[in-house]
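@channel sequence for tomorrow's demo:
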Amino acid sequence: MVETITIEDLPGIGPKGAQKLKEAGYQDVMSIAAASAGELMTACEIGEATAEKIIEAARDKLDMGFKTGVEMLERRKQVGRITTSSPSLDALLGGGMETQAITEGFGAFGSGKSQLGFQMAVNVQLPKEKGGLNGTCIFIDTESTFRPERIAQIAKAHGLDETKVLKNVFVAKAYNSDHQVVLADKAKEIIEEKNVKLLIVDSMMSHFRADYSGRGELAPRQQKLNRHLHSLQKLADAYNLAVYMTNQVMARPDVLFGDPTTAVGGHILGHACLAEDSLIQLSNGNIVEIGSMGNQKVVSADFSSMAMKEASADGTFVNPDISEVYNIKTNFQIDCSPLHRFFVAENFGVREVMAKDMKEGDFVAVAKKIDIEGEIRPLPFFHVKRVGTLTKETGGEIKSALTGAGITREGACSAIGIRPRHFRRVLNGGYPASMEVLERLQSMSGNTVLYISPTVTHKHRDIVMPELLTPALSQIFGYFLGDGNFELYGLRFRDARQEVLEEYRKLFKETFNVECSITKMRTKNCYSLSVNSREIADMFRIMRLTIFEEVAKSSKNVVGAFIRGFVDAEGHISRERPFITAVQKNPLILRYIQQMLLRFGIRSTIKFNKGRKKISILRIIDRDVRDYREIGFTASDKQEKLLRHAMKYEAVFPREQMPVARAELIGFLKECAAAPAVKKKAGRKWVNRRELEAAYAALSALNLDGDAERKASFIGHLLDGSIAFEKVREISVRNNSSALYDFSVPVSGNYIANGFIVHNSTYRMYLRKGKQGKRVARLIDSPNLPEGEAVFSVTETGIRD
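C-alpha cells (generated this afternoon):
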C-alpha cells in the first residue's frame, strides 16, 4: 500500500521523534495507527499518554473509521491472487492464494507444506497475466527448511533467471520465538521498498513449542502467539500482501483432546456464518450483537481445562450470499450457516462438527458458567433542580427596583422565564422558585441584595441523584423494565403484592432520598407505587437506552439485583415443580437476561412469540431453579417456594445426564482395571452425574498414563469445569436472504454466541500424501469458499496437477 502521509506529518512529531519511531520499526503512519499504546510504549520507551497521543494523531490522518459495504467491496477489488501452478488447487482456493489474508497449510511430514511455499515464492514474482503479482517474497525459516537450490530448480522450470528469482526472496532464519516475532515486526521495513507481496513462515509453531514447554507456560505462549498472529494480519491488510504459514498435524496447543488433525496455532480469520442478532459475550461482561462487533475482548473456551478465558477479537466479516440457515436448539438456540462449526463431546473428547453434519441427540458445547469480575460503573451527571424562597421585605425591594428601572411585570417574566402568576406568588407569598430563576431575578434588580432561603417541600424535595450503579438502583431498573411506566411527573409501578411495592419504596428512599406513595387501585386487585419526580423520570428515560450495557459490565451482585427486579415484575414460580417463568413482549430483553444468568451458572430456555399476543417466555427449571437461590425473590411467598424446590432438588441433582455413553464408560473402566463403578441399565444410554463422579473416583485411585490419563482428565474437567454439553433437541433449515456475520479470534479460535461455544475459522488447508506420490489438499475453512479437495503432485519442476 502506498502511503501519501509521512510520520513527519503527524502533529507534535518532529524529525527526532520520527527517527525514533522508525528505529523502533514504525516506518509509516499505518503501522503506528495499527499499533497499541503498549506496543509503542515498549518499542519507543515513551509514556502511555504520549503513545496514545501519537496513535490518535496517526488514526486521525488516516481513514480508519467505519466504511459502507460498497467501500469494502471496492477494497476487496484490490485483492490479488497468486497461482499455485496447480489449476485444481487454484480452483480450491478460489483462484489462487489471496492477499489481505493468512493461508495456513498443515499436514504431516512430507505432505508438501514447504514445497508449496517454495512454489509460491517463485510464482509471486510472475507477471499478473501469468498468475503472479510482480512482487517479491519474505521467507521466515524456523526449522532450517529453506532450500535455495529448490527455488532455483522451480525458477528454471518456469524459464526464469534463477539468480534474479533468488535475489527477490529475502530469507531470515529465526532461532527462537522472540527472534521470529522480531523478524515479522521488522518485515515492514523492507515490504514497500522491495515490493513484497508474499510473506512465508515455515513453520509457525516450532519455536513456540520449544520455548514454552509444559502446561504451566501455556498462557504466556498463547498470549505471545496471539500478538504474533495479529502482527502478520496487520501486514497483510496494510500492504495488501499474502501470508502463507505452515503447521504440523497435532492438537491445538490449548486442547488436550479432540481431532488430532487440528493445526497448531488455532484459527486466525473469520467464517461469516452467524445471524446478525447473535449475542456475543465480551470479557468485560458486556453483551453485543455480532453485527456491531469491533476489535474487542471476548470470552473464549479452553477445552483443555473446560474453563473460560479472555481472547482478542478482530476483523468482522459479512457474507451476504448464504442461501440457507440452520437453526440449532438446545436450551439455547442459534441461526448459522451450514458450514459453521460447533464442538461436540464424543468418545471422552471434543471434536468439531459442522451445522449441516450435526444430528439431533448430539451433545454440543455451551457455556455453563461465565465468571466475570465486573467493575463499579459511574453514572452520567443528572441535574437536580434546587429551590428557594424570598422574604417579604426582599420581595418589596425587588418590586421597587423594577419599577424604578421601568421594567414591567410582563417584561420581567419574559426575561427570567417565569409565568406572571408564579412571579406574583414568589414576590408576595414566599412561594418557592428555582435557584436559577432567583439568580436571574437578582441580576435584573440591580444592586438589590436577595435573602434566599433554600426550601424543601413535598413537591420540591432535596433529591439525591446517585453517582454509581449500585445493586439497589440496578434492582429498581430491572423492576421498571419489567413493570414500570412513565407518568407526566414521574414513574408508576403496579403489583398485586403490597409487600413488593413496600420493598421498592424503601429502595427509592435509600437511593434517591425520595418518599413514594402506595395506593390501592379501585378497579383492579393490585396496588400502585407512584414516584413523583421529573428528575428521576428523566434519568430513567436516558438510562434505559444503555442500561443493559451498564449492568452487564458491573459486578455480579449488581447483575443479580437487576435480574431479581425484572423477575419480581414479570416472574412466576410454580407451586408443584421447580419451574420459574418470566414473560415479555420484547424477546430481545429475555435474550439479554438469558445471557446474564450465565454469570450465576443458571441455564434457561426461551419460547419465542407464543400465543395470540406474541408473548415470549423465559423458563428456568429443575437444577437451575436451585441455583436461582443466589438471586432470589422479593415476594415472601415466591421465595418460600424457591427454597422448598431447591431443597427437594438437591436429592435429584446428581441424576443430571452427562455426555458420556454408558457402554463406553464401562468398557473404559474395564480397560483400566478400575472398580466397576457403573452398571449396565437397559434403556439408559448415557450416565448421570452421580455415576460419572463414582467412575472418576475409581479412576483417580489408579496411576494412569497415555490415552487413559487423557480420558480420565476429560471426565474430571467435565464434572468441575465451566463448559457443559447439552443435547441438540431440534435442527431446522430455512431459506435465507440476510447477511451473516463472523469475526476473527486468533489463537483460541472460538467465542460464545447465544450461549453456544462456536468456532471461527480461516483459510486452512490440510495436506497429506496420497497414492502414487500424489498430494491431497483439503480446504478445511474459508471465509468465502466451500469445503473441497484438490490433488496435485510435487515434481522436479514444482507443483503440478
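heads up for whoever presents: Confidence is low (pLDDT under 50) at residues 250-272.
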